Amino acid sequence: MAGILLFEYQISAPRADFYNITPKVRDAIAKSGVANGIVVVYCPHTTAGITINENADPDVVRDLLLGLDKAFPDRAEFRHAEGNSAAHLKASAVGSSATIIVDKGKPILGTWQGIYFCEFDPPRERTFFVKVVGDGGV
Ligand code: ZN
Fold it and tell me: Count of CB atoms within 10 A of residue 26's CB?
């Protein structure tokens, strides 16, 4: 069975945080029936992003958020009238998508890796997309 399937998910993001969406990505792959291929996780927002990082120690996400705040502080020189340029900078720094190899119906992720939706301009109701491309293989 060939599969090229798109899944859309909603997420509530009440605070600036990294939200673990790994279970949703696994769910999309399972529903797609794709055994061998790739999965693309995509964020269609300009003040949020997608990244892969550690899912074991929650202090890592805390430190990532702190590091991004230090690297991209709000600045008086910013001109964007919406007032959220720091969030735009963070979103570009982490990027809008992640691509993961699918093998035997599962995403190839390291033991400590999780897939995160990164919210930088809360509170927001957000959307992300999961596209699974491949074949049924087995
Ligand atoms: Zn803006």
Answer: 17
Which of the four CATH numbers 2.60.40.2380, 2.60.120.460, 1.10.3470.10, 3.40.1080.10 does domain 3-135 have? 2.60.120.460
Q: Does residue 3 surpass a pLDDT of 60?
A: no
CB 126, CB 11: distance < 8 Å: yes
Mean pLDDT for the stretch of residues 94-109 = 97
18 touches 103 (CB < 8 A): no
CA of 81 to the centre of ligand 1 (A): 7
CA of 15 to the centre of ligand 1 (A): 17
* pLDDT for 2: 53
Dist. CA 92 → ligand 1 center (Å): 12
Report how far ligand 1's centroid is from the alpha carbon of 51 (Å).
Answer: 20
**From ligand 1's centre to the CA of 87, what distance in Å?**
8
For the chain, which residues make up each domain, given as ranges? 3-135
Question: What angle do helix axes 58-71 and 85-94 make, rounded to 10 degrees?
Answer: 120
